[in-house]
Amino acid sequence: MNKPSKFRFRKSLIALLAFSAIILAGCSGSLFTDTSWPGVSVDEENAYLAYNQFIYSIDLASGTERWRFPREPERASTFFAPPLPTEDGLLIAGGFDGVVYALDIETGVVIWRFEEAGDIIVGAPVISDELVLVPSANGVLFALETTSGRLVWQFEAREALWSSPLVTEDGIFLSSMDHHIYAINATNGKLLWEKDIGEAIVDTPFIQDDTLLLGTFGNQVLALDMRGVELWSFETQDWVWAAPSVKDDFALFGDIAGNLYSASLNRGIQKWTTQLDGPVTASPLFNGEFAYFLTGSGTIFARDASNNAPEWEVLLSGGLYSTPIVQGDLLLVGVTDPETPLVALRAETGNRIWSFTPRQ
Q1: What are the backbone dihedrals phi and psi of residue 95, each rounded to the nearest 5 degrees, phi first?
Q2: Cβ(157)–Cβ(141) below 8 Å
Q3: Which DSSP helix (H) or strand (E) runs through 253?
Q4: How many structural domains are present in the chain?
Q5: What is the CATH number of the domain that holds 353?
Q6: pLDDT in tens, 207-230
Q7: Is the N-terminal amide bond of 70 cis, ω within 30° of 0?
Q8: pLDDT for 245-302, tens place per residue?
Q9: Fewer CB atoms near the end CB (10 Å): N or C, the chain?
Q10: Domain for residue 263, yes or no?
Q11: Averaged over 193-218, what is the pLDDT?
């Protein structure tokens, strides 16, 4: 990598860490070692929460804790990335200790661990056929055998990987803090193509109709075709942290200045824009006719997905920085509140069903 590129990366990384330090309220000591925002995943019966020093299994019906890992807090343990439930009965999670853990999904007991990641793991692991793909902040994407944790192949980017890879029939698409998006062969990890977009990307690309959508720290959203050719760009007021989502041929996305935008998928022409009450670092979530928008100020906005008309809004007790999940009639929201880091709301009304409070 040449010096100007490395300088641009370092500027972006410093800015990212500074912003992260602000939004991770209550952080002390070195960044990310004491606190994180919650990473949430689900299956049909349970929610899985990665937050601070533990991974929790939580009953969806009642919001009660089933188990936690580790059983007692460990100084080196901090978790951020949403754990990955697998069809093999495993829950796979990466930690800030640079270790990938495969836990028994029923008990939380360690089945295998991979200790060669070499740096913190921020992006969630994902499945690609028989492999689990794990991004590391040292710039390496590891492809591990799901059942054993054996390393099958690895791909090295130029700098940090802070987001999950996107797995498609055309290959794996990987965005990086080094200003590149990479297309990778899913079988062997070989590079298919790469594109330098000039700014850091911290979220997974979104794909719709063979169009890749990227939010960047260059105050823009980019649309690329499947060969990496730019189709259009859309200028925003500030950083776009999270990838856009798409509904009815329109892309929706927000920036950290609190602006929410809607633009046409085919040309990137603005349909509407509105101002929310805080930074937007989560992708919009669509659920039928509902669209959910979250802000770092703690507000969930539920709106009509077709015309942006308000349906309901709820203010929670902490910042909301990650995309929520709908499971059945529940809307699950991770909150940067140690007292209630996971809240379940009625998806149609916003009424609170339960709040998860970790036992002491």
Answers
A1: -120, 170
A2: yes
A3: strand 250-254
A4: 1
A5: 2.40.128.630
A6: 999 999 999 999 999 999 999 999
A7: yes
A8: 999 899 999 999 999 999 999 999 999 999 999 999 999 999 998 999 999 999 999 9
A9: C
A10: no
A11: 95
